[in-house]
Amino acid sequence: MARRINIPKELLILHPEFTIHELRALINVIWKAKNNRIRQAHIFKITLPGLGVLRSRGNKRPKRRQKVLKRDRERKRLNK
What letter would DSSP give residue 23? Predict the structure, then answer.
């Protein structure tokens, strides 16, 4: 089951015209649009006050991994 975003009371007070479900849906739509655009970007972590931390693809391999593996292969080749 997907993790639900906790909506703070301050946000509900700021926007009384929306229900908690509508606010959650709006945040999810905005988040998914941003996530689509940056899907191939670096890992990032955004902290939103009152909402928590939004992370993109936390288990993605680091960009520098290929260079490290290349250096390791060269080192092992020289050792042999």
Answer: H
Domain region containing 17: 9-79
Distance CA 22, CA 28 (A): 10
Alpha carbon distances (Å) from 40 to 8, 27, 35, 74, 79:
31, 21, 9, 28, 36
1 has a pLDDT exceeding 50: no
pTM of the entire predicted model: 0.45
Q: How far apart are CA 69 and CA 49, in angstroms?
A: 38
In a domain, 1, yes or no: no
Question: Number of structural domains, the chain?
Answer: 1
Smallest CA-to-CA distance from 46 within 5, 2, 1, 14 is with: 5
Q: pLDDT by residue (tens digit) across 18-39?
A: 898 898 888 888 878 776 666 6
